[in-house]
Amino acid sequence: MAEFLTTNGTSYHIEKIITGANKKLILVSPYLQISKTFYERLLDASKRNVSIKIIYGKDELKPNEKNSLAELKNLELLYFENLHAKCYFNEQEMVITSMNMYEFSEKNNREMGVFVTRNNDKNLFDNAVNETLSIIQSSEIIQLSKTKRKLFQPKTKNSNGINKKAKPKRGYCIRCEERIEYDVEKPYCWDCFATWSQFENPEYEENVCHSCGEFESTSMIKPECYECYKENK
C-alpha cells in the first residue's frame, strides 16, 4: 500500500532507491542540482554497474554538473522540454513526489510524495513506469564529456621584477556557478547571498570553487579549493 511522505521521508526514500538499485535506476526531475550525498550514492550505483537514466527538462546544466555526471558510467542523460513530473524508481521501489532532485528543494522546501513498491502496488507502479518510458522515447539524449575549466591568469611582475600570476578578475558563485567578480570576501551572486544571509552560517558547505569553478567543498570562509588558494594568496 502506498505510503505518504514528507520532505525528509521523500529524501530518505530517494536515497534508498538509489542504494537499492541492482540493475536499473531511473530519475525524473525537471530541475537538476544533485546534492553531494545523492551524487555519492549515484557514484556507488555506477560502480555496481547499475544502468542509470536521468531525465530533466528545465535550465541548461552548469558545467560542474555536467562534469560530475560525466563521471558516472552507464549513465544516460535525457532532456524533455515540457517535463513537470518528478518520479524516482529502481526495479522494486518508487517515489512519486513534488520534489525535484535539487539540493535547495531538499533543504528549504515543504514537499510531499508517495512511496510505492512493485509487490504491493503493482498496477500503480507499472502505470508510472510505462508513462516514464513514454517520456524517455520522446526525450533528447544529452552527450556528456568531462571538461577542465581554467581561468586565464596572465603573469605580472612584482616589485622585485619576478613573474607572478595575477589574481583572476572573474570568479564563480560558490553555490550556483554564476560568473561574478572575483572577491573572496563576496563569493556569492546576489540571489544566493540573499538566501545565505537568512542564516549567515560562514561554514555552510557549498560545492563550487570561487576561483576555478570546479566541484569542490567550499564555504563563505573558505571559498576556494586548496590549489586556487595557494595560487591566489
Automatic annotation (TrEMBL):
<dbReference type="InterPro" id="IPR059166">
    <property type="entry name" value="PLD-like_cat"/>
</dbReference>
<dbReference type="InterPro" id="IPR025202">
    <property type="entry name" value="PLD-like_dom"/>
</dbReference>
<dbReference type="Pfam" id="PF13091">
    <property type="entry name" value="PLDc_2"/>
</dbReference>
<feature type="domain" description="Phospholipase D-like">
    <location>
        <begin position="16"/>
        <end position="121"/>
    </location>
</feature>
<protein>
    <recommendedName>
        <fullName>Phospholipase D-like domain-containing protein</fullName>
    </recommendedName>
</protein>
